[in-house]
Automatic annotation (TrEMBL):
CDD domains: Argininosuccinate_lyase. This is Argininosuccinate lyase. NCBIfam families: argH (TIGR00838). The gene is argH. Residues 8-304 form the Fumarate lyase N-terminal domain. It is found in: Cytoplasm. Belongs to the lyase 1 family. Argininosuccinate lyase subfamily. Its main location: cytoplasm. It comes from Streptomyces axinellae. Its EC number is 4.3.2.1.
Amino acid sequence: GDVRLWGGRFADGPSEALEKLSASVHFDWRLAPYDIAGSRAHARVLHAAELLTEDELRRMLEGLDQLERDVADGSFVGTVADEDVHTALERGLLERLGAELGGKLRAGRSRNDQVATLFRMYLRDHARVLGGLLADLQGALVGLAEAHPEVAMPGRTHLQHAQPVLFAHHVLAHAQALSRDAERLRQWDARTAVSPYGSGALAGSSLGLDPEAVAADLGFERGSSANSIDGTAARDFAAEFAFVTAMIGVDVSKIAEEIILWNTKEFSFVTLHDAFSTGSSIMPQKKNPDIAELARGKSGRLIGNLTGLMATLKALPLAYNRDLQEDKEPVFDSIDQLEILLPAFTGMMATLTVHGDRMGELAPAGFSLATDIAEWLVKRGVPFRVAHEVAGECVKVCEREGIELDQLTDEQFAAISPHLSPQVRTVLNVPGALAARDGRGGTAPSAVAAQLADFRADLDLQ
Ligand code: ARG
């Protein structure tokens, strides 16, 4: 028979071209387990409203259990003619229970409130998966910081040497960004814990069904939608999810860019593990950072998924419009990409060899201790404006002579400024410069150790 849910007023079936355009089973099939869970909850409220007898409810739930098993083992699958997952599963139920009982489940619900609910359930589950994968990556970064507590490196602004920082401090800066992404996922989840089931097509149901009972049944902690029009039409939860995944992509891609740089001959800051790098088909010596490059590339794709979805939502009139069927593929793709990328990226970071000596050697290069001269002068009462000038003069002399700041002679210092006594050398070394920045959030080993301990404690709590 005709599987369509809306054949009644039509004399002709859909054209093949329409069927092809309309079909979403090939991407919404992943919602099948959630659709069945929704059907169970719906059967229970139909029973509570005395629209299903005790016996009908029992047989309905058995039919849904059977359908769930058949979906899980692949013996029941949706087809193009089914249009979408909801229609396919209705067909499956009719096949298992007969049209008389199977046809009762549709009362008081619409694919509009179904899909809005199931999409939320699917995303909430994957928010948890992504949170776990993010925790793994944060764990790898914390591990790097813990393994190299003393290593100094050139801290940069504008990609130029700026001031020395601890490698652990730098790595934890990335970890902090990822922990905000994980927090975003948790906050998104709390906001999304509202069930649209019971909103019907847009106006709610006249059958006396209890949307709050369905919400509780499906694990929506904040109950059911306060407004059935909003419940069926709103997709800001999907857009926000797409934003968080894009932000994760961007944050990971920033780490990736540094790994790519650090892995060059010129930097030689890190060596990638063989298991997490690739070779070249023509150049035998090559060892390429493909994981980092794919991370950088995929971030563009994740941004595209977000902007594509926003463009779909823009200017849609209330309530449900079929445009909304375009909401799922971009978000599903973002999830799929991150669930593939993050384990590989975490493996690459966890197995990184860090060349601490090389980083430490370059930490003072590029006159990165010039600020320390200026601040040393300030502590001796010199106005910062003058101190800045004097330290700049030191750099100028060094550049002219082709030497580093700590190679200036006592005479050269004195000639630049009478304030520059030989004691200035106490700050012209990396350990001194690091140790001096011991306020909260600073790069001193003591401050970074405190940050690391706090971070580790928060990570373990999640
Ligand atoms: N497959 C549709 C979607 O994803 C389900 C809702 C269809 N509703 C409708 N009235 N055509 O948006």
